[in-house]
Amino acid sequence: MIKFVLMSRVLEDLKYTKQHEWLKIDHHVAIIGITDFAQHSLGDIVYLELKDSGTSVKAGDSIGTIESVKAAEDIYSPVSGIIIEKNESILQSPELINKDPYENWLVKIKDFNESDLQHLMNSNEYQKYLESLEQG
Q1: Which listed residue, 53, 71, 75, 111, has the most CB atoms within 10 A of its CB?
Q2: Which helix H or strand E contains 136, and what residues bound it?
Q3: How distant, in Å, are the alpha carbons of 21, 77, 78, 80 from that of 69?
């Protein structure tokens, strides 16, 4: 686990969850993906399944499943809202997440609950959280 923490990139302009999802707000739309730490931990990603556009989700709900050669994990929504788009290119080529998890987002959510953002970590808090896992 230590090498994943040391190798993991954390971008400053994003919000983060303890389940290793990231969130970026762009014109009142929440863009969601998994972190660099998550993709390193999973290893080679081979399959991705995401909820359809139009699906209402609550913060903490599963929005899909990601599978690697090592494991299968649920992906959780950091906010409540309505999925308006899933990244079709990533569904066709899930290995792109391993190349750059911050460029290769998973879903976009509109009408999200702004108060959900209070429960997310900024980049400094997330980096400290990763360091605590390293010691854990």
Answers
A1: 75
A2: none
A3: 20, 23, 25, 30
pLDDT band at 135 (very low <50, low <70, confident <90, very high): confident
Say which residue the tokens 């990601």 belong to: 66
**Do residues 121 and 129 lie in contact, with contact meaning Cβ atoms separated by under 8 Å?**
yes
- pLDDT tens for residues 75-94? 999 999 999 999 999 999 99
Secondary structure of residue 2 in the 3-state scheme: helix
Domain ranges of the chain: 2-113+120-129
CATH code that applies to domain 2-113+120-129: 2.40.50.100
Q: What is the predicted pLDDT for the residue at 72?
A: 95
Instruction: Match 């959510």 to its residue by tokens.
Output: 109
Name the pTM for this structure. Answer: 0.93
20-38: pLDDT as tens digits:
999 999 999 999 999 999 9
Quick one: 54 exposed, middle or buried, by C-beta within 10 A (0-12, 13-18, 19+)? Answer: exposed
